[in-house]
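Q: What does the assembly look like in three dimensions?
Context provided by user:
Components: two
Sequences:
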Amino acid sequence: MRLAIAGMGWITPFGNGVDPVWKRLLRGDEAQAEEITEQFGDQSYTVFRVPESALACIPPHPRLRRASLISRFAAAAGLEALEAAGVKPDSQSAERTALVFAISNGGVIYTKRFYRDIVGAGAQSASPLLFPETVFNAPASHLAAILGITGATYTLVSDSAAGLLAIKMAEDLMTNEALDYCLVVGAEEADWLLCDAYRRWRLLRLAPPIEPFAQIGRGMILSEGAGAVLLARDGPVVIECTHPGGYYRKRTQAEEILKRVLGDLSKTEIDFVISSANGTFIDQAECRALMRITPDAFVYTVKPALGESVGAAGLWQVIIGAQALRYSELPPLLHAGPTIPLRISASRIPMASARHTIVLSCGVNQQVAGLRLGKNS
Amino acid sequence: MARSGSGNGKRLTARVAVVGAGVVSPLGFGLSETFDSLREARDCVTRVGRFSVAGCRCKTAGQVPDERLLSKRHEGGRARRLHRASHMMIQALGEALEQEPQFKPELAVIGTTSGGMSYGEDYYRSLDRHGSLRHAPTWIANYPAQKPVIDALDAFEISAPCQVVANACASGTNAIGHAFECVRSGRYQRVLTGGYDALSELVFVGFDSLQASTPEKCRPFDQHRTGMVLGEGAAILALENLDLALKRGAHVLAEITGYGMSTDNFHLTQPDPSGVGPRRAMERALESARSTANMVDYINAHGTATPFNDAAEGKAIGELFDRVPVSSTKSMMGHSLGAAGAVEAVICLLALQYQFLPPNINFCAPDEDVDLNIVANEARPMALRTVLSNSFGFGGTNASIVMQKFEA
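A: Here is the predicted structure of the complete assembly.
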């Protein structure tokens, strides 16, 4: 079965729109960090936030009136992907479109507010308006309602591998010949509580930069937003091969499964790899696996520029891989040290003859996934 | 008309066998205890003791007793740190693998709604009270929804990749349905599937705040129903290409023959009162199974006992079927959310195996607005060949599966 990317959309700390954000990445820009605090104590964290102005692109819809940020991000990315593919969300296309949603932490802002009321003032003060927005599939439900999708809608939960796992599921769904499209969306919102949790787990640093593939992983910076790809039977970039991935039991075992995923995906010559390196322990696992399996491929990670967006991250990586194939160029890798034993570049890399790329996701919560993209000839 | 749900457009390439099953729920640990509870129509809903319900209208839930569930915690090590949900998953998977020790799945598709939520609550409360955060790394590491699935796979040295479906209360049935389609399409030969959820304060209070849960007994489809009670549990099904299962001499518990899903965009928390969402899901499941409504011998309904759900589901069943026996086993064990569809699929397996109708307890008076043949208050013997199980959830997700007695 042939599977291709017909349209893409994203909303990121650089704003929205695939091409405008892509241009900033090529320029070597880095998102502006914002300091956030919480009532619990003096500890502040920094995150890469989506600028308010980027949300202006979302048309008004009754479902979004009270919806969380994560649902708005998803709507922005999903609608852009459909528009890019020239697909109008009408009853005919909606009937032949499935939706697979990737998420990790979900609607954490409303969840925190809802539980804060319970802890602070008792169960009787809990808001019936907030609770439904805390459910993992609330963003998918809002997006399905906006697009009028009445068939298959799935929400998949995982770590930053969620996006690629969702594409794998979409591939399985697309074996149904009654489907023309599957919209895959990944979204996440950043919050102090998440920052604190990841810091206590020794995965977060207090301020940028994210230093990819460093010998000592000093940690990631969280970001937020959404990414969407509309999968169809044809398009300028083809999903040549998806990998079901796997999980690692201990951090030290991540390298082995990464090698297996890379090995399975690199049966053809790979020009570059869009890595998920984010400044944590996964970087060294990825680095060793990449050195071993695809030593000649260029390696890029967007996380030093845009942060770790967890549920959205895999979709962002796929969009970057597709853009790099379409425009034959890779953005500069930011904040990479001079001794990294991989083919990386601190400046833009022309890739005129690039045909194939691997997108690799190693999540911090034990899941790994990958896929291979190819230029449609 | 083409449809984006299951049913149309698929080439049928494989029959799908259930070759193993395991369950833990308020009805009991394992298939045998579950069957006994169903046969005796036990009310397994008890007062909640795990957290304070002082400010809630509802005070009860179906609960899995910790003294049995966590009996291995005293052994120390990793088991001590795992969330209750992980212990439920390990228990359910262990039972399924006892029947099929050689089962090597290529994929696991598991449903849930809230993962290790109570650990998130512990973490938040400690922050809020400026209390000890010594256990924070354990809470945080065991909070993600995929963790109990990985813990269970790891416990039995299964290295299959996993997909965790969070389609609210339809998660379990959606997971089983997707796993079924993976095997039926021929892309996979063996898939583990199921669902889990453990009771948590946040979710309990959430349903209470919506006034969806009841301070009274849970009475699905009763004229005087006043709402749901929550539950918890885990269930696992081992699915395999039927030909391969037979070739290696596996014992086939039943077949899954159809799956349908629909998305009802009426409201985030309420079904379209016309019943169009449930109706589409059931129609698509029947179409997928190449069955007709009159071939269905029993329906395990979603039947939460909320006025809106039962009215919409009852209307859809009444329109599609002709007085088929219907019960909601949530009346006995509560609504276990992401586990519900999986636990109820296991109940359907038992119904097919032992040829009986599971009861809908606490039923006093039929609802005059829906014309249903309710299996009221006690289990009944019945020759069953084809059964259908429904699950509907927040976000308008509706899922139905069709299961059949295996006849060689």
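Follow-up: The mean pLDDT of chain A is 96.
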